[in-house]
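Inputs:
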Amino acid sequence: MKVLIPTPLRSYTGERHEVEATGPTLGAILEDLDRRFPGMRFRMIDEQDAIRRHIRIFVNGDQVRSLRTPLRAADEVLIVQALSGG
Amino acid sequence: MTTKVSAPGAATGPVRLLVATRKGAFILKSDPARRSWKTTGPKFLGHAAHHCVLDPRDRRTLLLAARTGHLGPTVFRSLDMGRTWKEAARPPAFPKAAEGQKGRVLDHVFWLTPGLASEPGAWYAGSSPQGLFRSEDGGVSWAPVSGLNDHPMLAKWTGGEQDGTPDGPKLHSVLIDPRDARHLYVGMSSGGVFESRDQGKNWQPLNAGCLADFLPTPYPEYGQDPHCVRLHPLAPDILYQQNHCGIYRMARPEDRWVRIGASMPKKVGDIGFPMVLHPRDPDTAWTFPMDGGTVWPRTSPGGRPAVYGTRNAGRTWQRLAAGLPAGQAWLTVKRQAMCADLHNPVGIYFGTTNGEIWASRNEGAKWACIVRHLPHVYAVEAVELRA
């Protein structure tokens, strides 16, 4: 399925803003991304499997908060970094 | 155990300053006389760089502790003195907790310490919240030091999140006895100074004599707030610390801290963050006092910045302010942002939260600002490219 990558994470994807990943759940998709782009998952997901504070993940426009969220091949995953601070 | 370690000669070549800032890392390069400086960088612009350290075993490898404000923490490695960088394959992280239990989450890597020459590839990392990690492959992969991170007393030693610094509670000052790679010290803010003699399997508090005026018991076994702890590389039984409650020195086997800051001028006080030692003389040290009164402004007392140095193990202190602003200069220097080189006379350097780097080529006798307008400086490390 299509995964849209935010600017701060594009150093992992060779500056590509859109990549393909496969898996039955959001967690599996992120694992797949990490296999192809090592280190990327830990910048988004902490060691307790929580989505980091400033990361938002949307599936077909709806925000999801659990790595167990089931996905279908036609879904579109959008990863967003919420900006704050100075 | 012998007291001294054989002394290397003074360095004579150019110095590089590894400057870690809230917005990236910079490298300043000097000429051999240390009179002129050239700034390169930024590296990782926009990343919070907490510490950049050279591996003295090859004088080429750099490790950088970084966190991109909104992304997770990591460590970057350079094998060519900062020209190219690669992220650690397995950066420091706490173990995943069992289902239904609350696990700890690493906010950022704060401190990096290379291992001894006898342990090629070994590095230690201290983190926020307090955690200790070890790499045995040059910083590519990291594992928790569970003897500390899972110690049943850790929560009591460190208190809670509210007991940390404004940037979060930290483990810092990872020190290795140069005579024995198994003999480690760490500082925890809060928590105190702790010691292991078996490479991190077991730990003991080392805080006797050190005040904690913010606790019900003023001299507790643990719970103090060391800001920066240093071990003298040639006389490793001598430790200094700039603590939240003063400047201390310990000369082992007397396992008791002595408040050498008591001899500082009363109007200046002995509160600050960094602590710097002369590389060859264990009786000489420098600090950068800051205002720890009332609500803790953490700025130069009276707006008159000065380094204070002692040459007699803290019995007396000398104000070293020539060349520094005479007034209306409210500088803050963080605990990793002051260091010394290995030259003779020793060069001393400090970086400020308003982005200035100040240098003295003569052990503090005269100061000059060598760069300004950098981001908020977190850490400054002086390195020599040749002995």
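The two ends of chain B are 27 Å apart (CA to CA). Flag for discussion at group meeting.
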